[in-house]
Amino acid sequence: MTSSTSSAPITVVADGDVKLPFWAALAAFLVLFAPTMAGLVRDWWGNPDAGHGLLLAPLAIWLAWRTGIDPASKPAPWWGLLLLTGSVVLRLAGALAVELFAQRVAMLGAASGLVIYFAGWRQLFRWWLPASLLVLSIPLPGIVLNQLALPLQLQASRMGAALLSWRQIPVRLAGNVILMPGHQLFVTEACSGLRSLTALISLGLLLGALWLRTPVFRAFLIGAAIAIAVLVNAVRVFLTGFFVYFISPEMGQGFLHLSEGWLLFVVSLAILGGVTWLASGVELRLGRGSHD
After folding, report:
1. Which residue(s) pair with 184 in the sheet?
2. Of 11, 145, 170, 190, whose CB count within 10 A is highest?
3. For 54-83, what is the mean pLDDT?
């Protein structure tokens, strides 16, 4: 675990001259962004593609509290005001255009501006992990999700069809439809693996921050999380087609199909945990070698 998680819990700046502006700025932030926060929570609760925010946001807040304040960090009021001004303008423009994503990005920008204003850049960098988790908790716009989901659907279809063919099952691929004798397997948007991809990237970021020490190995772990999500989703498509062909078409829908997805997601978590353990061992060995 990195040293950044071992400091004292967060405390409000004790300087009496700072307390009043701090609470006033915090109150203004809450008033301005309360509707944005409420809408975001509703999305986390009601949108399956955004449900990971229910876990990431509280975890980010807890990590920020646990990491605490860097006593060496110095406030940067002018930079903080600049970022706050830009974020408020973006918030108002997003409200006029009814663009939720812009308003949510503005909320994170304003929060960063407050941190910079009262505690400085060093404090914001100290909170890089909570900030990254909060960024990941913001649902992407629908147009972006569609652009990401379609390539993932097609890739899962290609890989799943290749695995079925490897098992001597006659298949023909037509876009995201796998044709088998007597059966058609549709790889829908929900089966694109986008949800598991988001979850594994978030977990890879968290595991990398807690167990790895160098940016190179942390980036490697996030790349591994992406690869694991794509490969395991292809295996899910293959298993669905295999069960549909040899057992029953009911294996491709309903509770059985959902249970298969959850089981393979647990397998993905286990694989990512194993990769983290291996990467940590390699990193430790390389670190010892550099000191010899």
Report:
1. 179
2. 145
3. 92
Distance CA 104, CA 138 (A): 7
Neighbour-count burial for 248-286, b at 16+ CB within 10 Å, e otherwise: eeebbeeeebeebbeebbeebbebbeebbeebbeebeee
Residue 181 to residue 184: CA distance in whole angstroms: 8
Of the pLDDT bands very low, low, confident and very high (cuts 50, 70, 90), residue 220 is very high
Structural domain spans, the chain? 3-139, 143-291
CA torsion 197→213→76→23, rounded to 10°? 60
Tell me what pLDDT residue 62 has. 94
Whether 183 and 251 have beta carbons less than 8 Å apart is answered as no
Position 262, amino acid: W
Q: Is 70 helix (H, G, I), strand (E, B) or coil?
A: coil
d(CA 86, CA 287) in angstroms, rounded, equals 42
pLDDT at 281 over 80: yes
Please state, in angstroms and as integers, the Cα–Cα distance from residue 221 to each residue in 5, 200, 216, 270, following that order.
Answer: 20, 10, 9, 13
Instruction: Evaluate whether 57 touches 1 at the Cβ level (below 8 Å).
Output: no
pLDDT in tens, 96-118: 988 899 999 999 999 999 999 99
CB 117 within 8 A of CB 80: yes
Of residues 226 and 2, more confidently modeled: 226
pLDDT score for 270: 94
- Residue 93 identity: A
pTM of the predicted structure, to 2 decimals: 0.80
Give the pLDDT score at 120.
Answer: 93
Residue 186 has phi, psi (to 5 degrees) of -95, 120
Contact 114, 25 (CB under 8 A): yes
Q: State how far the Cα of 126 lies from the Cα of 147, in Å rounded to an integer.
A: 33
Is there a contact between 240 and 251 (Cβ–Cβ < 8 Å)? yes
d(CA 178, CA 156): 11
